[in-house]
């Protein structure tokens, strides 16, 4: 959404309204109580919104587990919605594919906060049922602490709105390369999204199907500041990046 500069003094209130809107629309209670428009629609017709994984992907997951790999499923979705999605895309036996399932993970904080800050909890009938676990001692399905308090703190203590670090384009173009036209001259630059992928990711793939048939010891090239911008994409870099590198 866009807010004119003249309305900047009301932007914080608008941000609050949008946050509340998304909490109500996509919050755990809406899924549990089957309210709103999103969750009831997905429940009634999951095939309209979800694409089942191919048999190759399922074989790939089973082969990794059979070879002794520890498989984790980590999602910010709550357990009931996770089950709905996974049963449709992986099958009713999807839990057998993973050693540990963690829902309500609240990424990216999941990767930076210690358990004492946001402890793991066991689940009974999709309800968190413990005071918090110091660590995960055995395989199973776990949840992290609810984010409600964090949302309320966010509403009470708003932060300044961020400005996009990439140039604004007048038309939709490549996800990776932004094309600006000024008085007949064309200027190309890497987008903020492209920069973020290259800076913060290890590698990028378009679909699990692209790697499902690879051997488990396959060596991927990874993103690195001392390598070309196209290094790290598998099975091949995006066309727009290849053209950008040629120029």
From TrEMBL:
Keyword field: Acetylation, Hydrolase, Magnesium, Metal-binding
Coiled-coil positions: none
Pfam families: 5_nucleotid
Keyword NADP set for record: no
Record-level Gene Ontology MF annotations: 5'-nucleotidase activity; metal ion binding
Family under the similarity heading: Belongs to the 5'(3')-deoxyribonucleotidase family.
Metal-binding found in the keyword field: yes
Protein name listed in UniProt: 5'-nucleotidase domain-containing protein 1
């Amino acid at each position: 959404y866009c807010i004119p500069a003249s309305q900047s003094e009301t932007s914080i209130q608008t941000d609050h309204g949008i946050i509340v809107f998304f909490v109500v629309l996509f919050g755990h209670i809406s899924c549990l109580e089957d309210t709103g428009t999103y969750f009831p629609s997905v429940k009634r017709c999951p095939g309209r919104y979800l694409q089942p994984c191919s048999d190759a992907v399922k074989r790939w997951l089973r082969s990794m587990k059979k070879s002794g790999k520890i498989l984790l499923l980590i999602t910010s979705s709550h357990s009931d919605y996770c089950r709905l999605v996974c049963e449709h895309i992986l099958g009713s036996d999807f839990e057998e594919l993973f050693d540990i399932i963690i829902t309500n993970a609240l990424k990216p904080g999941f990767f930076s906060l210690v358990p004492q800050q946001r402890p793991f909890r066991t689940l009974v009938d999709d309800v968190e049922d413990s005071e918090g676990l110091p660590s995960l001692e055995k395989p199973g399905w776990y949840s992290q602490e609810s984010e409600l308090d964090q949302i309320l703190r966010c509403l009470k203590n708003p932060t300044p709105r961020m400005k996009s670090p990439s140039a604004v384009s007048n038309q939709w173009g490549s996800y990776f390369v932004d094309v600006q036209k000024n008085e007949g001259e064309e200027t190309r630059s890497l987008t903020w999204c492209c920069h973020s992928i290259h800076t913060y990711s290890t590698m990028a793939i378009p679909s699990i199907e692209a790697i499902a048939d690879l051997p488990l010891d396959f060596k991927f090239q990874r993103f690195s500041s001392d390598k070309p911008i196209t290094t790290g994409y598998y099975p091949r870099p995006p066309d727009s990046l290849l053209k950008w590198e040629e120029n």
